[in-house]
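During the second year of the project, the team shifted from modelling isolated chains to modelling whole assemblies. The rationale, set out in the original proposal, was that interfaces cannot be judged from single-chain predictions alone. As a representative example for this report, we include one of the complexes processed in the last quarter. Its constituent sequences, exactly as entered into the pipeline, are reproduced here:
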Amino acid sequence: MSNGRETILSNIKNALKTASQIPDLYNDEEQQLTKKIIANRPKTTEQLWKRFKKELQEVDGEFELFENGDKIAGHIADFLKENNYKQLSISGDEICQQVAEKIKAADGDIEIVQATSFSDEDRKSNLATIAVSLVAAHWAVAETGSVVVVYEQSQTSYPHFLAETVFAIVNYEKITADIFELFENIGPEQAKNMVIISGPSRTADIEKILILGAHGPHRFIVTALSE
Amino acid sequence: MKATPLKTKKYAKKAVKDQELKKALLSATASTVESRQKIINEIPYWEQLRQKAHDIKKQTIENLDKYLEQFESNCSKNGIQIHWAQNSEDAQNIILRLAEENNVRTVVKSKSLTTEEIGLNKALLDNNIQTFETDLGEFIVQLMGQIPSHLIIPALHLTRKDIGKLFSEKFGCEYTEEPTELLDIARTKLRELFLTADMGISGANFGIADTGCICILENEANAHFVTSLPRIHVAVMGIEKIIPSLDTLPYFLKLLPTNATGQKISTYVNFIGEPSKDKLSEGPEQIHIVLLDNGRSRILQEPSLRQTLFCIRCGACLNSCPVYQQIGGHAYGWVYMGPIGINLIPLYLGLSVGRYSPSLCSLCRACQEVCSTNIDLTENVLELRNRIVRTGYNNKFEQLGLSLWAFFARHPLLYRISSSMPRILQRLLPKGMGFPAPGYTRKRSLPPFDKKGFRKRFYKLTNNKREY
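Output from the structure prediction step:
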């Protein structure tokens, strides 16, 4: 297909010999846009989390702030018990393993399924049958109520999408004001395999009626860990 | 060569008569416009954001060859294979060859206008490869044997009753028109396919040159499944979807969801920049990106129309367009529709095929006011209309009428005499009755001309003593 490549590039190069008649619209010499973006940001971490909670709830996500891993574990263990779930899948993040051990300690009946312990075929078929997952998120974005998952750190993407209910743990300090600030912290290596998640999956394809849980999770619960 | 034009008039006439369609269109476009406006009200720098995006796209498109080469080089370093397709046939052949080489029997697809543009589903099905759209709206439209009627909401023209009946017929399940139950039916069918498909085919919202990765925005999570569960992932991307760098992406991540669906951000923004099999022991072993030209480099040759390539397919122009609101997407006769469609159709398919498309515009400029990248679509429409006339593809009666008008307009005395004729001749009609006008007076009447006439009134109003 190298011919296609050479022809397309040659066509483009020839076309671009003719100057454009399209004017520039924005003069950024004074960096007004950047200034306005920064001016619009909450100032403190507390304000950022307040904004995060509001935005996440607006997109039907849920938020809880916990002092430590024990409390998160207790919260998830209660949820599993109340809903009669016996299995919990977890990503490869260390924090998930630590919290999972505590959940197991709180309720010995719960089976913790480590996603990375399976080969690929087994991994997707097994995780597709588990209703609840626990994953780590590596950043939060206040302006949109989003969390960012870098798969290289999680060592998997399956528990984030295949479960009906997803709990995502994020460190209290790892919050950015907006999508612009997020990308000041994300490097090209991380951007090769990652996702920004904002609430549970959704569709409005039938008469514009919003339904949660389209193909992915019905519930998306972010738990911030302040310790 | 004179190709057969799209039957735009026929489709539009049919659509205008469909009251259910009109109701669905008005309701859907109004709610998206409202949600969009609510978000924009919270962004004090919205206009500057659009201007910035315009300039980024301009800079990219005017250096497109360099960015494409950079993108290719970085993708290759990341283990992604790049293929170049000059046209639809090339793109189909590349994908069919990949399918054959990898013994692919089943394909799952996420929503992609670019794959619609190249007629990929038909090519795959013709080669006995089972192909399933997985976006709920696309899935419904595929089952119906139709094409999408909106860039973002593919099944906008269908009611829940239509969908309930369709599912009942196709799957033999009990009829329901409850949206959550309809979704459950589709979800169950598709979940199984996600887990077993050999190849996933997606589009790409953005290709990031300095990183060598693509970015896909979605709400349902189907695009994630399509790109992460099958062993091969193929993304079909128009060459204009390139952006220079990761730090230019946030501008578009704010503009696209706000304008497309009235969301601050899409539920999932997926970044794909390497086959995950080696690193994560899961997901695709191979990622292929098909860079599609299919007429785009031809548009580049037109400096005045080049900005059409700035489009990020947000669909905001459709929602704001008074013509689209009346006729919907199918009336345009191709995969692209609305104000952007009437620009793209003659440019991609040729002036001969798309000769009627630029007529579907009232020149109100509502589209430009909402466009994510500030494309002057109306100016482009005027330019395209001009070209259609110059190449002789316009209606001959219309041309004759305008030539006559031009003749009289160049001769003021004749113009004055002829323009007073209707006023004089209407005295022959019964009192209060206006002239019949083709089309217009079928369902309403044309009011009689004023007895004094415009010129007389105008000069009186302006106290101008000149003879009228």
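DSSP finds 22 helices and ten strands in chain B. Chain B touches chain A through 101 residues (CB under 8 Å).
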